[in-house]
Amino acid sequence: MGKHFALLICTLALLLAGALFAGCTTPPALTPAAAEGEPALFADDFTSPNPTWALFETNEGAAYVQQGELYLEDRGRGIGIYTHPVDHEWEDVLVDVRIRHIAGSQNNWMGVICRQQDEENYYLFAISADGYYLILKVEAGIPTPVAGPLKSELINPGRATNQLLVRCEEDQLALSINGDLEASRTDRTFKEGNVALFADAVEAGSTTTAAFDAFTILEP
Fold first, then answer.
1. What is the SS3 string spanning 72-139?
2. Cβ–Cβ contacts within 10 Å for residue 66, how many?
3. What is the CATH number of domain 30-218?
4. Which of 35, 82, 88, 170, CA to CA, is 20 to 30 A from 123?
5. Whole-model pTM?
């Protein structure tokens, strides 16, 4: 059965100051080594809670820091869960992050959002614990696959750690998994916006939890 992508993000409540708010050209292969030695625009190893992040707990899901990782829980209410650094926007970025599946359905999506305008306009770069990858554009709430969803031999399945490197540079969108380029495409729809981390259980009523570590945003 093919992987489907009937996510998508609805407004999530996020915790800020103690209150709740509703809320193909192929570039060179991206590798973790490409990030070494470069000055970071933003970085977090989640050794302690960082007030820059939108952390929350609701009936729909939760975002919290635990044991040196940022956890995202989709609690089975049919929406994707995301969190981002509050009041930050970027144009061209290279996003490096480690992801692992913790609990719940492996038929899920875990990954990075870039150039997020709001809940209905963004690019999503994601993998699943059962071995699929996806680059998705969501415009005015309508999802359009840019690459995938397809099975990838680059993904470590199950609860193993995977490293994603995401490029949003000018009109180039690229996803590397564990040091190898999986997909690159061009799209000119969004030029800037927020960067976020994302988790979603694909099947209605199912739950999933993902953990993120070594999060870095660099200039490409």
1. EEECCCCCCEEECECCCCECCEEEEEEEEEEEECCCEEEEEEEEEEECCEEEEEEECCCCEEEEEEEE
2. 11
3. 2.60.120.560
4. 35
5. 0.85
